């Protein structure tokens, strides 16, 4: 009798029942798992920062500590100027920024064309764009290398070891075109048709109406292009031999070869390579969330 | 020259799609066809030494190292995809619970996906270092022996799979979290009324409901695995004793070390064919 009186009646006090449930062993276990996963997923990155701040002798001390007592910022100076990461950083920035610009511009132009304009062969040409999405990059390195090496009317070596050689193969991706087209198809045509009736030509409509309307998708194209170009490894590796043109990833690779034992400097280099995209993530996190979840729900439907 | 308005409109449209289409065809479609042409030649660094017909293909079929590399790649793909996707799904179930701070966990879990594969693998090469690495420090603290994570053939592939799974969990988690959010709530309520417990609901409602997304993430993980070279370079370089020699690394070695570009092209086409078959099987199995 007493027991039934204490037990909360179903539906009568749902709020209290729910708030009390938060502190059940089950909830505590869930948070424990969440924290463990956090340590596993972020621990290595924290360890990178910690090692990058250690003095050379501190790297070898047992037991190891995550962060040193006195952060040794000099490692970054050494990696930045001593190991030429400043130069690699500049190269990566050039490659990334140009690729972002060309993907946003050329991708949005083509996406607009496929979504809004009528012309013979439209479906077939869009199929061509879709096929490029399915070609794995790995398949392309041998032929691309030989194409860049044998560009007509150039010196021996062609466009290997040049910025254009690194940038051009991904100056526009099928992904950028595809995203822009999908987005525009979700926007009512009336918005841009009204401007066209007013006598604006195609380019004016594109520039003054379409681009402002599609800002969210342009941002997604920019962020994902930046991420894939900054973090690109395979193509810059084969396209570049000249150390003055290494991107940060390639610089880091050859740094490993030279300084395998100096873990603190190597980790300082890794931090330099990682920080720009970490900043992009901090600044544009809602965009990531939005586009990845669109992918998740879109594919499920 | 006078152009009709219709033709002018079409020309305008071609100006919009032209630049992108030109670059895509030149740097995606054409190289794929060029690979096929290269694979029929004895092609060195100075150019073609002549047409050799199907000789490169015959050599690939008889090249035990190629088949070994395909096996290594497949084991890596299966292992890292299974661990990575299972982990991502498990964590997605966790972070989509209506509990405080789960949103924060979700945001933080994605961080390893924005740092590059090469940076991540470099960090793991430090963690897995035989003498000074943190992993072996822990093992010794527990009075176990050091593990030759990357130095011994029997361990190296396993270690690479762990690193791949680690990245896979982070990358696939938001995709699964979104997919879980789109599952019809009423199904769960109906099942709860029928007395289904949490596991049963997960097994009989959630998993079938997100099957399309799983098919997609599996294909994406496999395609990613077959292009994996950054973490191989940072961790093992394909060794020890070719234990982690993935096919793309073998292609790079044949091309850029031995300068056998024709042969590297033939291997590339075998890899592509293999990948297409795997994807096709995966898509077909989903339909049934």
Properties at a glance:
heterodimer; A: 301 residues; mainly alpha; MetI-like fold; 16 helices; globular; B: MetI-like fold; two-stranded antiparallel ribbon
Explain this structure.
The complex is a heterodimer of chains A (301) and B (288). Chain A has two domains: 11-74, no CATH class; 83-258, Orthogonal Bundle (MetI-like fold), CATH 1.10.3720. Residues 1-19 of chain A have low confidence and may be disordered. Chain A has helices at 2-6, 14-21, 25-52, 56-59, 74-82, 85-116, 122-134, 137-149, 163-167, 174-185, 190-197, 202-213, 215-230, 234-239, 248-258, 263-300. Chain A has 16 helices and no strands. Chain A is mainly α and 301 residues long. Chain B has helices at 5-38, 55-61, 64-95, 102-109, 117-127, 134-141, 153-181, 185-193, 198-209, 211-226, 230-235, 247-257, 261-287; strands at 41-44, 47-51. In chain B, a hairpin with a 2-residue loop joins strand 1 and strand 2 (47-51). Chain B starts with a helix and ends with a helix. Classes of the chains: A mainly alpha (301), B mainly alpha (288). Chains A and B meet through helix 3, helix 6, helix 7, helix 8 and helix 10 of A and helix 1, helix 3, helix 4, helix 5 and helix 6 of B.
Q: List the quaternary state of the chains.
A: heterodimer
CATH topology of the largest domain in chain A: MetI-like fold
Give the CATH superfamily of the largest domain in chain A: MetI-like
Provide the β-strand percentage band of chain B. Answer: under 5%
Beta fraction of the residues of chain A?
A: under 5%
What is the architecture of the largest domain in chain B at the second tier of CATH? Orthogonal Bundle
The average pLDDT score of chain A comes to 85
- The top level CATH class name of the largest domain in chain B: Mainly Alpha
């Amino acid at each position: 009798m007493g027991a039934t009186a204490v037990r909360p009646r179903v539906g009568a006090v749902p709020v209290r029942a729910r708030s009390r449930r938060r502190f059940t062993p089950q909830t505590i276990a869930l948070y424990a798992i969440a924290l463990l996963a956090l340590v596993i997923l972020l621990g290595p990155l924290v360890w990178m920062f910690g090692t990058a701040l250690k003095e050379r002798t501190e790297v070898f001390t047992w037991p190891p500590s995550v962060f040193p007592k006195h952060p040794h910022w000099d490692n970054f100076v050494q990696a930045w100027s001593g190991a030429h990461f400043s130069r690699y950083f500049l190269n990566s920035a050039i490659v990334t920024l140009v690729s972002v610009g060309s993907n946003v511009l050329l991708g949005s132009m083509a996406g607009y064309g496929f979504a809004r304009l009528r012309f013979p062969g439209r479906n077939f040409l869009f199929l061509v764009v879709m096929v490029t999405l399915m070609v794995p990059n790995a398949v392309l390195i041998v032929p691309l290398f030989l194409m860049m090496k044998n560009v007509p009317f150039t010196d021996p070596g062609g466009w290997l070891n040049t910025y254009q050689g690194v940038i051009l193969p991904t100056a526009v991706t099928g992904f950028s075109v595809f995203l822009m087209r999908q987005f525009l198809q979700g926007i009512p045509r009336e918005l841009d048709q009204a401007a066209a009736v007013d006598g604006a030509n195609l380019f004016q409509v594109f520039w003054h109406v379409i681009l402002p309307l599609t800002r969210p998708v342009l941002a997604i194209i920019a962020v994902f292009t930046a991420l894939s170009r900054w973090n690109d490894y395979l193509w810059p590796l084969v396209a570049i031999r000249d150390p003055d043109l290494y991107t940060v990833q390639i610089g880091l690779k050859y740094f490993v070869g030279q300084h395998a034992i100096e873990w603190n400097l190597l980790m300082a280099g890794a931090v330099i390579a990682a920080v720009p995209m970490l900043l992009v993530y901090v600044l544009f996190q809602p965009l990531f969330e939005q586009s990845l979840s669109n992918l998740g729900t879109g594919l499920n439907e | 020259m006078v152009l009709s308005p219709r033709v002018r409109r079409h020309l305008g449209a071609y100006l919009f799609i032209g630049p992108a289409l030109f670059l895509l065809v030149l740097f995606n479609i054409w190289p794929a066809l060029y690979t096929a042409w290269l694979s029929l030649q004895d092609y060195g660094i100075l150019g073609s030494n002549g047409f050799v017909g199907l000789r490169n293909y015959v050599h690939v079929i008889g090249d035990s190292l190629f088949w070994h590399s395909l096996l290594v790649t497949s084991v890596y793909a299966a292992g890292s995809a299974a661990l990575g996707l299972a982990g991502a799904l498990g964590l997605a179930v966790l972070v989509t619970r209506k509990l405080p701070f789960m949103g924060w966990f979700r945001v933080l879990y994605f961080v390893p996906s924005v740092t590059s594969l090469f940076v991540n693998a470099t960090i793991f090469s430090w963690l897995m270092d035989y003498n000074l690495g943190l992993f072996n420090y822990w093992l010794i603290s527990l009075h176990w022996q050091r593990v030759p994570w990357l130095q011994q053939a029997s361990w190296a592939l396993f270690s690479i799979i762990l690193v791949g799974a680690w990245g896979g969990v982070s990358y696939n988690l938001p995709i699964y979290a979104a997919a879980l959010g789109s599952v019809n709530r009423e199904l769960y309520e109906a099942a709860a009324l029928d007395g289904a417990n949490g596991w049963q609901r997960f097994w009989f409602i959630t998993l079938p409901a997100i099957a399309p997304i799983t098919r997609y993430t599996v294909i994406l993980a496999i395609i990613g695995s077959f292009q994996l070279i950054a973490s191989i370079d940072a961790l093992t370089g394909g060794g020890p004793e070719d234990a982690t020699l993935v096919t793309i690394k073998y292609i790079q070695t044949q091309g850029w070390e031995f300068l056998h570009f024709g042969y590297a092209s033939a291997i590339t086409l075998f890899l592509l064919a293999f990948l297409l078959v795997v994807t096709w099987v995966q898509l077909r199995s989903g339909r049934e």
